[in-house]
Design brief:
The structure is a single chain. The chain has about 725 residues and is of the alpha+beta class. The chain has 22 helices and 21 strands. It has a 5-stranded antiparallel beta sheet with strand order 5-4-19-18-17, sandwiched between helices. Strands 2-1-3-15 form a 4-stranded mixed beta sheet. The protein has a two-stranded parallel sheet with strand order 6-7. A hairpin with a 6-residue loop joins strand 4 and strand 5. The termini are far apart.
């Protein structure tokens, strides 16, 4: 069996040794004079002078390990992700194998239960060694001193300060402070409390702090099940955690383990036979990697990223980004979110069924986000990519569903899903959904005055690209005729939309969209609805989250709620952090929302999305959207209980048509067909809502008033 290695002697001169010996003797005499008295008396004398200092320290200094991982959980308590700078899972002493306690004390502090916090003879021995043999320095710190030292360092790191030196290289002032605190701690805590704290805070290689995290990482077992050999391996790592890491340097780890086994025999912790048997055992590592952050999220990594961005932008978690990050990684938070695991699974399934992220030859992008209209709670958020910063066609950390300010892609052109806002202003202006409009016009002359009360002249002139006026096309021929407003909207007829706009104030449409939270996903600016292309969703990029929130206002009788992802944050001490509650307000009149719902119900019955019904004709509504050349496609739909934005399009190739591309194993856009909002985005929305909507409110929408249903114009 291997024994402890002895270093060779240093090539110092005889005179040098004599001088060094005298110097050590002088210093040792000073130390011994203060400490070489019975342990209890030494502790009492020293502690009397420093107990006040210890008690004046912040409370968390006395409580033990500070840096703890934070956990993000779904609304049912299931784990989404963990954040940590130090992977730590504190456990009580009775949850740690006796083998671990024996191994640690044998190699680090065999007199732990007898001294008063400091080992005087050890200090003298280490000082002599460090003078005479500087290349083989010793620290002479007891477990209590090491615990204090780790607490100090942990506290400094959390405060953003430079950490003090660990080990034998610390300065005299730091060493004196450590000794004083160790003596004080022995007066305030029991030996078992100190040992428990130490075993939960000390580094065991990599990012593994504490014996429980180390046991799980190296062997996939709790600390309570550590064998003699495993305990000796971990105990041996304390001296140099990364050098003796069994995964990194297995030979050195085995040698160090066997040194620990030797000391365990010497202290009577184990028999020679047990030591010999343990020394013959291989390391038998069973590595269980532990990763921090959203890249290691068990589900919903992009929702996790959204939550992380909220924490990092909230003053509740610190005054600066650095403080907030420290709180997230070290504060032991439990962040309870609104995520519905069942809905998330359905969302993940559908975005990847539309276009699998691992089989995406044309790099087509998909995304889906869903929230509850009654309170704004986000229930799912998915896209067909891997949450990763590494190179790869399916890798990105950009969240397709949210604004740039929240780590998102910043949105996409929304096409005809913008039309319901013009419809809403039509109703708001006192006009009925059964009114007729002249949808024969596909051209408005250059001198046509579009009413725009917010502009200097009170109107807008649109000369068009060629100076001959504003021209456009309908998606399908044969619809340039007089028609009712509702028919024009649920069939998504562009000429009907502009006929309505010609009879409205463009600025008032903008006021309504601003009230409903519609804004540029990259800049945050409201949409300028005096730009005529904006009425077809073609002037700015808008995120799926923004659109889902706006449509939730229709579903909720005009009351719109801010999206909410976090419902509660509490740390390991029980401290609650302030997080925004539900925030809802009436943004459009109830009768306006009722009228929009009445029209958009027909989209799923006889309109542009008739093939995407979810079997709730009186309780579901939707709007399709397709940009020019089928670049971006959408389906925005809702019940009273769930509003969902579904998008299929181009993230990297913004102007590329989806027509002719391989999507979900088939090619769209061949012959006379083309990809529109109902094709893939619609199918994605339909399948998701059929699965999830029944878990939420599917009662009928309330009926519009007679004036809304009228033909008045």
């Amino acid at each position: 069996m291997a024994s402890r290695n002895n270093s060779g002697s240093e090539p110092t001169s005889v005179l040098g040794n004599i001088v060094a010996f005298i110097a050590v003797s002088v210093v040792a005499g000073v130390v011994a004079a203060g400490l070489l008295v019975p342990p209890a008396a030494a502790a009492g004398l020293a502690a009397n002078a420093s107990i006040g200092w210890f008690k004046s320290l912040p409370a968390d200094m006395e409580m033990g390990p500070l840096s703890r991982s934070s956990t993000v959980v779904a609304k049912d308590g299931s784990e989404i992700a963990t954040f940590f700078a130090q992977n730590r899972e504190p456990v009580s002493l009775n949850q740690i194998s006796p083998n671990m306690k024996k191994a640690l004390l044998s190699i680090e502090d065999r007199d732990f239960y007898d001294h008063g916090g400091v080992d005087p003879w050890g200090i003298v021995r280490a000082m002599g060694n460090n003078v005479l043999r500087p290349s083989n320095r010793q620290g002479a710190s007891t477990v209590t001193q090491q615990y204090v030292n780790n607490l100090i360092i942990d506290q400094q790191v959390r405060a953003g300060e430079q950490a003090s030196t660990i080990g034998a290289d610390k300065g005299i002032v730091d060493k004196i402070k450590e000794i004083k605190l160790a003596l004080s701690m022995e007066q305030e805590k029991s030996k078992d409390e100190i040992l428990e704290g130490y075993l939960n805070i000390v580094l065991f290689g990599g990012q593994n702090y504490g014996v429980q995290a180390a046991s799980e990482y190296y062997w996939g077992i709790p600390a309570s099940q550590l064998s003699i050999a495993q305990a000796a391996t971990l105990a041996g790592m304390v001296q140099s955690p990364n050098y003796y890491d069994p995964q990194v340097n297995p030979e050195a780890s085995v040698q160090r383990r066997n040194v620990v086994l030797d000391t365990m025999v010497q202290t009577g912790a184990i028999t020679q036979q047990q030591a010999d048997q343990a020394a013959r055992e291989p390391l038998n590592l069973d590595i269980h990697p532990t990763s921090s952050g959203c890249s290691a999220a068990r589900t919903a990594p992009y929702f996790c990223d959204y939550v992380e961005n909220q924490v990092m932008q909230s003053n509740s978690f610190g005054a600066t980004p650095e403080e907030r990050l420290a709180t997230l990684q070290r504060g032991g938070l439990t962040i309870t979110t609104t995520l519905d695991p069942k809905a998330q699974r359905a969302a993940d399934t559908q975005v990847n069924a539309t276009q699998p992220k691992d089989d995406n030859p044309d790099n087509v992008s998909t995304a889906l986000v869903s929230l509850e209209p009654r309170n704004g709670h986000i229930v799912s958020m998915a896209q067909n990519t891997n949450y990763s910063a590494a190179e790869g066609t399916s890798n990105t950390t950009y969240n397709f569903n949210v604004d740039s300010s929240m780590g998102g892609a910043g949105g996409f052109q929304v096409g005809s899903t913008f039309k319901p806002f013009t419809l809403a202003q039509w109703i708001n202006a006192g006009k009925g959904i059964k009114a007729s409009v002249d949808a024969r016009r596909l051209h408005y002359p250059a001198d046509f005055r579009w009413k725009a009360s917010c502009l200097p002249n009170g109107y807008k002139i649109e000369p068009g690209d060629d100076g001959n006026g504003f021209s456009f096309q309908n998606a399908t021929e044969g619809y340039a005729r007089v028609m009712d407003v509702d028919y024009g909207i649920y069939n998504s007829i562009n000429s009907a939309l502009y006929a309505m706009a010609a009879d409205l104030d463009l600025c008032e449409i903008g006021e309504l969209t601003k009230a409903m939270g519609i804004h540029d996903g990259k800049t945050g600016d409201p949409v300028d609805t005096t730009v005529l292309s904006s009425l077809l969703g073609g002037s700015v990029d808008i995120s799926p989250m923004t659109m889902a929130r706006a449509f939730s206002g229709f579903a909720n009788d005009g009351v719109m709620c801010e999206p909410r992802a976090v419902t509660k944050v509490v740390d390991y001490t029980g401290k609650n952090y302030d997080v925004p509650g539900d925030s809802c307000q009436q943004v459009i009149k109830k009768e306006v929302a009722q009228g929009v719902n009445e029209v958009l119900k027909q989209v799923l019955v006889r309109g542009s999305g008739y093939q995407r019904s979810i079997g709730l004709p009186d309780a579901s509504a939707a709007k399709t959207g397709t940009t020019d050349n089928s670049t971006q496609t959408w389906m925005l739909g809702y019940t009273k209980g769930l509003a969902t934005a579904s998008w299929v399009g181009n993230y990297e190739f913004g102007s590329r048509s989806l027509n002719g591309l391989s999507i979900g194993g088939r090619t769209g856009g061949s012959g006379t067909e083309w990809v529109d909002g109902a094709t893939y985005a619609g199918g994605q929305w339909q399948n998701y809502m059929r699965t999830v909507a029944p878990d939420y409110d599917t009662s009928r929408f309330s009926s519009p008033t007679p004036s809304v249903m009228s033909a008045r114009k």
